[in-house]
């Protein structure tokens, strides 16, 4: 509905039979939307009254619309179905709070992540999975389906209480991932570390550094990072720094699945997120931007990271790893 309204309101023609149209029709619609969006950026960038941060944030919804267009065309509806079991497990969850940077993903995104973990990590009692911050409640969905151990680190007591009630077998650890280190006993003990960190450079690195420290030194061990790259990519250098830092720690991306996760922006609990975005997005007289702001979902890619074989860390890397554990 969002795409239909966007096209109708901005003079673009959604091809008949959408989304079942050939690649050429998708490509022309995509180009037409891209051109409209680039025109909007040119206008925004030429305004002296709009500061750099606002110019960056103005790109959030247009780039999200581009992702949603591709998703709508390329992925069948079934991908976004969620099983009844999972819905029941997540029913009545605590509302998201902005103080903890929470914006939880859709239940089907959580379910997809869990399938991905189970495809990759051996189903053995000795296997261990760690969720580093888990408002998405992946640990609740995984624990009853998994033979190994499931652990979660978070700061939010409401979430930890909910997890305790719905999935009592999950081992909980209350750690501040910004200020504290992870307990030394957790170092290099997990086959999978799952995280959906804040989207800024400092926040994402605070979480990611701990994920790397916790991962076992085995060939099958993986980090499942759900991350929206927009904020860092639009700022330029932070993205390059992230990949460089990962390489310096001996990690590489084995797979990147675009828009693997969606976040429902229409749900009432995300009101505060909308308010926050409104604060940064410039107020301009553009019905097109207003329509783009109606995007019903935010997105994040899934980055599957693994250790580079035979990697030898430098003494600096070892020192940093020591710092991130207590
Ligand atoms: C950082 S939030 C972000 C997730 C959200 N899905 C998103 O894309 O914006 C993910 C989880 O980390 C937890 N969290 C936030 N700050 C934390 C901190 N300092 N230490 C530990 N957990 C934290 C939150 O409670 C939440 O469950």
Summarize the structure.
By secondary structure, the chain is an alpha/beta fold.
Bound compounds: S-adenosylmethionine
Please tell me the total number of domains: 2
Whole-number mean pLDDT: 91
With strands numbered from the N-terminus, the spatial order across the biggest sheet is 3-2-1-4-5-7-6
Ends distance: 50 Å
Number of strands: 7
Order of helices and strands: HHHHHHEHEHEEHEHHEHHEH
Number of helices: 14
CATH class of the largest domain: Alpha Beta
CATH architectural group of the largest domain: 3-Layer(aba) Sandwich
Q: What overall form do the CA principal axes indicate?
A: globular
Strand content: 15-25%
Keywords:
44% helix, seven-stranded mixed β-sheet, binds S-adenosylmethionine, alpha/beta, 326 residues, 2 domains, Rossmann fold, globular
Outline the fold blueprint:
Elements: H1 2-9, H2 23-45, H3 52-57, H4 60-74, H5 84-90, H6 107-120, E1 128-132, H7 138-142, E2 149-154, H8 157-166, E3 171-174, E4 192-195, H9 201-214, E5 222-227, H10 230-235, H11 237-248, E6 251-264, H12 271-280, H13 287-292, E7 297-307, H14 315-323
Parallel strand pairs: 1-2, 1-4, 2-3, 4-5
Antiparallel strand pairs: 5-7, 6-7
Helix pairs in contact: 2-4
Give an overview in words.
Helix 8 (157-166) links the parallel strand 2 and strand 3. The chain has helices at 2-9, 23-45, 52-57, 60-74, 84-90, 107-120, 138-142, 157-166, 201-214, 230-235, 237-248, 271-280, 287-292, 315-323; strands spanning 128-132, 149-154, 171-174, 192-195, 222-227, 251-264, 297-307. The mean pLDDT is 91. The radius of gyration is 21 Å and the shape is globular. Helix 2 (23-45) packs antiparallel against helix 4. Strands 3-2-1-4-5-7-6 form a seven-stranded mixed sheet, sandwiched between helices. The chain folds into two domains: 2-74, no CATH class; 83-323, Vaccinia Virus protein VP39 (Rossmann fold, 3-Layer(aba) Sandwich). The protein is α/β, with parallel strands linked by helices and 326 residues long. Bound molecules: S-adenosylmethionine (SAM). S-adenosylmethionine is lined by residues 100-105, 133-136, 154-156, 159, 176-178, 196-198, 300.
């Amino acid at each position: 509905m969002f795409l239909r309204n966007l096209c109708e309101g901005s003079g673009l023609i959604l091809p008949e039979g959408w989304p079942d149209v050939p690649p050429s029709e998708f490509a022309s619609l995509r180009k037409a939307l891209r051109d409209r969006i680039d025109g909007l950026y040119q206008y925004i960038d030429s305004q002296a009254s709009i500061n750099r941060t606002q110019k960056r944030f103005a790109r959030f919804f247009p780039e999200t619309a581009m992702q949603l267009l591709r998703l709508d065309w390329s992925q069948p509806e079934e991908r976004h179905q969620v099983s009844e079991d999972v819905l029941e497990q997540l029913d009545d969850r605590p509302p998201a709070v902005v103080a903890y940077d929470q914006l939880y993903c859709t239940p089907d995104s959580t379910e997809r992540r869990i399938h991905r973990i189970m495809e990759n990590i051996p189903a053995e009692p000795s296997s261990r999975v760690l969720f580093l911050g888990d408002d998405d409640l992946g640990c609740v969905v995984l624990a009853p389906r998994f033979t190994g151990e499931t652990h979660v680190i978070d700061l939010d007591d409401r979430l930890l209480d909910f997890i305790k009630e719905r999935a009592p077998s999950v081992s909980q650890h209350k750690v501040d991932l910004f200020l504290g280190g992870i307990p030394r006993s957790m170092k290099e003990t997990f086959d999978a570390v799952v995280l959906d960190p804040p989207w800024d450079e400092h926040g994402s690195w605070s979480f990611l550094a701990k994920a790397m420290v916790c991962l076992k030194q085995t060939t099958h061990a993986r980090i499942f990072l759900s991350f929206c790259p927009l904020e860092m990519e639009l700022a330029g250098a932070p993205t390059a720094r992230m990949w460089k830092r990962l390489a310096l720690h001996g990690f590489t991306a084995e797979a990147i699945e675009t828009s693997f996760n969606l976040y429902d922006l229409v749900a009432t609990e995300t009101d505060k997120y909308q308010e926050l975005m409104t604060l940064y997005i410039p107020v301009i007289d553009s019905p097109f931007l207003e329509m783009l702001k109606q995007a019903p979902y935010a997105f994040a890619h899934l980055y599957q990271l693994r250790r580079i074989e035979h990697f030898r860390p430098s003494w600096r890397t070892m020192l940093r790893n020591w710092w991130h554990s207590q």
